Amino acid sequence: MTMTRRQALRLLGVGAALSVPGCSLLGRTPLPRLLTSGAPLPRPYTVPLPLPAVAKPYRTDASTDYYELVQQQAEVEILPGLRTPIWGYDGQFPGPTIRARSGRRTVVRVTNRLGAPTVTHLHGGHTPPESDGYPTDLVQPGTHRDHVFPLEQRAATLWYHDHRMDHTGPQVWRGLAGFFLVGDDQEEALPLPSGERDVPLLICDRSFAADGTMPYPARPDGPGAREAFMGGVLGDVVLVNGAPWPQLAVDRARYRLRLLNGSNARTYELALSPGGSLVRIGSDGGLLAAPRPVDRVRLAPGERADVIVDFAAYRVGDQVELRNLADEGAQARVMRFTVERNVRDDSAIPTTLSRVEPLDPAKAAATRDFEFTSGDMHGHTGWLINGKPFDARRVDARPKLGQVEIWRLTSDVAHPVHLHLSPFQVLSAGGERPSGPPEWKDTVELREAQTVEIITRFTGYRGRYVMHCHNLEHEDMAMMSTFEVV
Length: 486
Ligand code: C2O
Ligand code: CU
Ligand code: CU
Prior knowledge:
Helices cover 7% and strands 42% of the residues. By secondary structure, it is mostly beta strands. The strands form 7 sheets. It has a 7-stranded mixed beta sheet, with no helix packed on it. Strands 3, 4, 5, 7 and 9 form a 5-stranded mixed beta sheet that branches. It has a 5-stranded mixed beta sheet with strand order 16-24-23-18-21, with no helix packed on it. One copper (II) ion binds next to loops.
């Protein structure tokens, strides 16, 4: 019986791994589940690392750069010898990288040539509400929408991705995500590695059916089936910039790696093997005040970390793996660097990177509590914030423009919580203050049964925004809440 069921599921390409526990310590709360590939998978570190194309503005004037991204289907070779249908911005996965400037208006026209409505959100953008990609601001097939990004914000590694209500998980899984890098003069004046040694790495997991497709578990209405993947969808292939366990030839020099976890539900703990230090220089919201050498970087879905790796610490011919300590076997592998040649390296890591002004809890005008749990949602199980499923007609908080607030976020199982519009600083996690000086974040991981306090100041724009869990299956099953800046 078990075998038959497994075989049947494998044929569909949706075999849930039996080794992954379906439930957590907290009773029946579902955890993410692994989809097993039916396709033959390549040996790790045999495919070269691709770099996403850099988008060119179709028009530029004194104040503004104008871009167009066309969402379309395409077939790409992800696994050697197989064709994989994707949905991509400009038919690419990841989509083209937009390189923008802090304070320079950037207008992105998103044209939908897919067969389904879409919504595009700039994650980490300080964006007016009408351009932010509220989950019901649908762009219908055959139409377009102009997103205006004033980018009155710090230099940072941002990303854009689909945000359609109830459908973000499948639409991002099919490929709708890309980098959006904001630069500024101050950052450019630093001697950090740049050009070919400034490498964006979008890390995500996918699974492949025997024919090369990336099936996504359906959301059937039957009660049991619906719940099977509500904890989150995990793939068994780790992709970096859309390539399976790729490899990159590097010089004996410093590299800036812009790490982005673009996975639906997988959390990584990244480290170098056979050892070596990662020097963290940036977080979701741009440069830290000072560099911080670490031996690992944990990234929940939606989070970013900019790190410097100095390959001069290795010898020519050495192979350095980027590994994921949060898992075993194939999913413990991410990518590999091959140290190829000696070069002159003029880069450096300055001891001061930027100014990060701490937000003062004594100035907070309000404290709000948000509980992230599973629970009953119209007769079946869903993900709730303060006991309620997402409803676009309801506003759950009305912070005042300019006001400093403390938000206390509490979890049942782990939830990576993301706030639109307003970058924040973490005050405490599990009752403890963070180990380093404050940094700007837009996504924070609540570990299992934990309270995380964040502090933020609502600036820039009045209007409707969302806060949500960035486990995309949790988000699609209603773990989202609207706040309105008034
Ligand atoms: Cu990266 Cu509201 O999302
Ligand atoms: Cu966002
Ligand atoms: Cu969640």
